[in-house]
Amino acid sequence: MGTRGAVDAEVGRIMSLAAEQLLRRLSELTDELVARTRDTDEAYRRLVPADDHWQSVHDAMRHGIGAILLPREERRDVTQAEATARRRAEQGLPMDSLLRSYRASAQVVWEGLIEAVAGEEPESLPVLVRGATRFWHAIDRQAVAAADAYRRREAEMCGRTAERIQALLDALLEDRADAALVRSAAAALDVPELARYAVVVTRPPGRQGHGRDAPRPAVLGTMRLLWRMRSDHEVAVVLLHDAQSGDLTRGLEPHVAGHAGISPVVGSLAELGRARRLAEVALRTCAGEGPQVARLEDRLPAALVVSQPELAGHLSAAVLRPLLALDPGDREVLLGTLEAWLRCEGSAVRAAGRLYCHRNTVFNRIRRIEQLTGRSLTRPLDIVELALALDAVRLLPAP
């Protein structure tokens, strides 16, 4: 055997001698390490039960110290480290706390090895020092394995947690939530059961859902938004706190490139299914290509139209049939003039500015609309019929 081999053999002998001594003191060393860890790390005291902590430290030290006595293929220290790390991840212990415990364990065991050799063969302490590299490499190997196992388990739990949160949101939004599920959802989502909520439904621009809006905000001022992504639209549950739905509308506008509908405010998680349905109605009142954020309270007449498409179709046909029978260009000019007149509250001057024409032109077109439809824009009931019929033409698919 060469000099190097002789030295390695002597190092192995001394470390085995010390390891056997430490295994006889295993419970004492476990008590020391557990006490040191729990005295200095509040996370262990709060998250890891004392008996669980003691047993896992006892097992880890038994396998770790015992590894000194075994061939590499028979060692179980890394397997034990991985099992403990997975459990600590499940308990929510921070990884920093876990890794600090490995440093503390290494210190306790190394001090124990020195004490054992000093008591049995003090002249062999220099030989033990030669084995320090081997010892600390073993500790590093355990710590690395523990960190990897912790991250994998944490990723698994995050994935399952995300799936569960999405499932709970779906149940709330689809009105499938009983009282127990509402309580579970409130705990999982970290929101109150009773609070001021609204629901937002957004649709990206383009008929096929092409195009992207700005990144979805999780917070708008004091409001918190929980998003549920779907293939052709997105839904957000909004915890309003003290904000108003108008604040939500203004806050969303920079983030929406397509269309969005906002429900009325509801008072609990259990009402989110109804709020979602009303937000979808608000969304259906959006027409055209530009960005729009529609709050239901601001679109109630149009909401009535899209909610009753068959009746609305009959209304538009009954009220606007002669106008709709015109050639497309003429028809669109008159419909656009009617729309501008209604939006400008009957002001010919403002409507002319919107349409880029003279106010007399607006008057002439209005008289023609009245002649064609048999309705007068000076009679309130006629105005209601014309406004609802116009919404039906703009919002419902052509027959």
Largest sheet: 7 strands, mixed
Secondary structure class reads alpha+beta
Rounded to the nearest angstrom, the radius of gyration is: 37 Å
- Segments where pLDDT lies below 50 for 5+ residues? 207-211
Q: What is the overall pLDDT average? A: 86
How many beta-strand elements?
7
| Spatial separation of the terminal alpha carbons | 98 Å
- Approximately how much helix is present in the residues? 55-70%
Count of DSSP-assigned helices: 17
Assembly category: single chain
Domain RsbT co-antagonist protein RsbRD N-terminal: 28-164
Pfam families: GGDEF_2, HTH_30, RsbRD_N
Family: Belongs to the CdaR family.
Domain CdaR GGDEF-like: 177-285
